[in-house]
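Hey, resending since the last one bounced:
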Amino acid sequence: MPKHAERIECAAHAKLNLALNIIPERSDRGYFKVDFLNISISLHDTVHITRLKDHTVLVNEPVVDGGENIAFEAARLMFRRFGLPGGVSIEITKRIPPRAGLGGGSSDAAAVMRGIMKLHGIRTSHRERMELAEAIGMDVCYCITGGLCRIGGIGNVVERIDAPFFPVHLLVAVPAQKKPSTGWAYSLLRTDEMGKNRASTGELIREMRSTDKKNIARFLHNDFERPIASAFPVVGEMKNLMKKHGALNTLLAGSGLSVFGVFDDEETCRSAQKNISAFDVLCFAAHTVDNSDS
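The structure tokens again:
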């Protein structure tokens, strides 16, 4: 029997919704259906997983605002599902800001799943990985897949998009303010305004294949942006700052409150980062990554 590693390191990449459409139709589980186009970016947490001899799961990641530690839940699920011996110690070096619309917690959970599978030499089908991810959280379904994907269902249908990879330069700005919750963000949506831009998602996929950054920027869309920008003026302020400093276009990240901008080149992006950081806004220069094989 081959000997597996005792310790493994995994990158847990932040994700962005290039298109976020909420469909005014509920599933049989009561959730709104969605149509997203997601991409992974270079901003990432680092997850270290070490084998333990006793049956213990230790995670250093703190629970944020009374929420669940889904990295812990992911590890516990893996041990239950596969009847694994011993335990693990999980250390997460956080770089992705929490509750910022960047999927940090879900990405950490997905990295824990991947890491434990590598530590124990577990091979699974895509369908089995998706079932495991869905049991933890819908965003984990995308994060366990990674790369450029179109997301359907209630977040549990993930289709990889075949497109030539090239880095799109991005600036992510994170305000000090935090929104109440994702549930609160959904409460702001009006059903007569949901999903009106779904046709542009197909256009965006075509532009991702053509690698035209200006047109990629042109077709960005997020159903949450208008109502959340109305409730939190800082969103509009960050968008205006990015456009002033060279962004081709900007968009609310997920359900916010972060904003990201698409830039034509790294130099302009880095310059914008320096200028916008002077306004006491946390900024990350990043680029898209194809981590679909991680």
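The longest strand covers residues 32-52.

Sorry for the duplicate.
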